[in-house]
Amino acid sequence: VETGVQDRVASVWFGMAVLSFTPSFSAVVAWDKDRVVLRRESGQAMYSVLSWFTARSIINIPVQCVQALLYCVIAYFMVGYTITWDNCLVFYAGYALFQITSESIGLMTAAVTPTAAYATLALTFVLLILLSFSGFLVSSIPVYFQWVGKISYLTYALSAIVVQIFNNTEFVCETATAGCVEGQTIPGEMLIPPAADNGISPG
Predict the structure, then answer these.
(1) Which residues, in sequence order, are CB contacts of 174 under 8 Å at separation 6+?
(2) What is the model's pLDDT at position 172?
(3) Do residues 1 and 172 make contact, with C-beta atoms less than 8 angstroms apart?
(4) pLDDT digits (tens, 9 = 90+) for 132-168
(5) Which helix (H) or strand (E) holds 187?
(6) Would you list the DSSP string of 43-109?
(7) pLDDT for position 26
(8) Bridge partner residues of 185 (DSSP)
(9) Residue 2 pLDDT more than 50?
(10) How far is the CA of 75 from the CAs of 31, 72, 112, in angstroms?
(11) Which of 88-92, 108-112, 140-144, 161-165 has the lowest mean pLDDT?
């Protein structure tokens, strides 16, 4: 049981780790090409930086949704999650919103730094901190660092998907251990890692 639980949580977390870097760094590269044009046109009062950011984010939503869909279709069946409409919908919605947020964070980081190199360094630092305190890598977070997990969008995306999947999954105990009889079926909601159960899942 322990292996199955950890494998499912790890598969969700590592998928988010990849999808947090890919769209955000792509946004930094795109911004570096648009920097000169934006600076000239905003300087001529043609539009504001906020207007550009909003328009760019909206235009990229369909692209991010398609990329998230491709990943979810492959990962969902490869890992072997329980197939229900609720699970599939929450799994896809969680990853799609997560990827859109990652792309927006990349744009914001690029906009407040002078060059793409500085943006890349700053973005790497921010994402690594958020990933580290999301509740997967470090299960027991010191009280003075708990605020990091509360502001991390990865924490909430991870919780929503993990809780939804576990609520619709049953695990079988393969070997007898303390509190577990061999062959016993255990409801998934009883095995949700405490760090992932913050009560925000739609399930």
Answers:
(1) 1, 182
(2) 74
(3) yes
(4) 887 777 767 778 887 887 888 888 888 888 888 888 7
(5) strand 185-187
(6) HTTSS-HHHHHHHHHHHHHHHHHHHHHHHHHHHHHHHT----HHHHHHHHHHHHHHHHHHHHHHHHH
(7) 85
(8) 172
(9) no
(10) 30, 5, 34
(11) 140-144
What mean pLDDT, rounded, does the chain reach? 81
| Eight-class DSSP state of 180 | B
Q: Tokens in use for 14?
A: 């590592």
Asked if residue 10 lies in contact with residue 90, where contact means CB atoms within 8 angstroms, the answer is no
Angle at 201 between CA 19 and CA 172, to 5 degrees: 90
- For residue 181, give the 3-state DSSP assignment: coil
Give CA torsion, residues 124, 128, 134, 140, to 10 deg: -160
pLDDT band at 82 (very low <50, low <70, confident <90, very high): confident
CB atoms within 10 A of CB 84: 14
CA distance 6 to 162: 11
